[in-house]
Write a structure and sequence with these properties.
two-stranded parallel sheet, 10 helices, 37% helix, globular, binds iron/sulfur cluster
Length: 311
């Protein structure tokens, strides 16, 4: 069975992130050119409980118990996964349940497209950190790079992001994903800056695809530097993260290790380094596990990623 809770994954921004996968692969309101999960199979704005809430919370209980037994630490709980997490309907009771179980901050990593919905807004305001994406400065670029579901206009999406960011009392970060030749010209960056100036935030995370993407190229280091200069002092360029092991441990069983590795790479195609760091395992143990679970490999810009399709 595929678990809903995975990781902790080494996050380039937040340290060791325990992820909760709330929607099936790829239920999303966008079909971004840079998506590391491939083409969207269900392009929708319909919000549903794709999995029962009590099943997700039970999975969280089990995972917290498992991590506690193995002495594995994590820094944050992230609502994310195989599609757009805000398409999960029972977000408010879910976040309440998470906060009853752990005092780690809760991060909503969202494409930002549904923040105009009152329930999504309420959930976003309950999270300690809100990070919506904004990859465009104009309606044309929005349609081109994010390929939104019907009904998601530039005005509606930007209005929702603006309201959520204005009312949020915790940390607000905006992620800008730059892809070569699509949204990384100086003109595009200046249009984005003008839009960003109308949305309250503390940090702009400038990113570019480093994982396998179906239709996007990486932006050059020069472009990332230009974006940082244009966006100003709140902007940071997201850099690669190599987690550090939190504990010396022996895994309980190889079956458990295989399950953890499989759940991780089914959602996050990852390098050997990333998997070892996330799960506190030696590289040799990870390689053995990858071979047992018959993980697939793909080489992207000189880095080898392992991935798996779970049923
Ligand atoms: S919003 Fe996220 S999951 Fe959806 S298509 Fe874009 S990158 Fe992929």
């Amino acid at each position: 069975m595929k678990h809903r809770v995975y990781g902790p994954v080494p996050s380039r921004r937040f340290g060791r992130s325990l992820g909760i996968d709330l929607v099936p692969l790829k239920v999303c309101s966008y079909e971004c050119l840079y998506c590391q999960l491939g083409r969207t199979t269900n392009l929708t704005t319909t919000r549903e409980d794709y999995y029962p809430l009590d099943e997700i919370l039970r999975d969280l209980d089990d995972r917290l118990d498992q991590l506690g037994r193995r002495g594995i630490e994590f820094d944050i709980v992230t609502l994310a996964g195989s599609g757009e997490p805000t398409l999960y309907k029972s977000l408010v009771p879910l976040i309440t349940g998470i906060k009853e179980r752990t005092d780690r901050p809760v991060l909503m990593l969202t494409n930002g497209s549904m923040l105009w919905d009152p329930e999504v807004l309420e959930a976003a305001l309950m999270c300690d950190i809100l990070e919506p994406s904004l990859d465009f400065g104009t309606p044309e670029t929005f349609r081109r790079i994010n390929v939104p579901a019907e009904g998601l206009t530039f005005e509606k999406v930007v209005g929702g992001i603006r309201e959520a960011c204005s009312r949020h009392t915790g940390q607000v970060r905006i992620e800008v994903m730059l892809t070569g030749g699509v949204n990384d010209s100086e003109e595009e960056l200046r249009a984005m800056k003008a839009l960003l100036d109308t949305i309250p935030h503390q940090v702009v995370d400038i990113n570019t695809p480093v994982r396998p993407a179906w239709a996007a190229d990486t932006a050059s280091p020069e472009t990332l530097a230009m974006a940082k200069e244009i966006f100003g002092e709140k902007a940071v360029i997201v850099s690669a993260y190599r987690g550090t092991p939190s504990a010396e441990h022996e895994p309980d069983s190889w079956e458990e290790v295989d399950e953890e590795v499989a759940n991780l790479i089914a959602i996050h195609p990852s390098t050997l380094d990333e998997i070892s760091a996330a799960l506190d395992l030696a590289d040799s143990e990870v390689l053995e596990s990858l071979s047992r679970i018959k993980a697939r490999q793909v080489e992207v810009r000189g880095r080898r990623y392992f991935w798996l399709k779970l049923q």
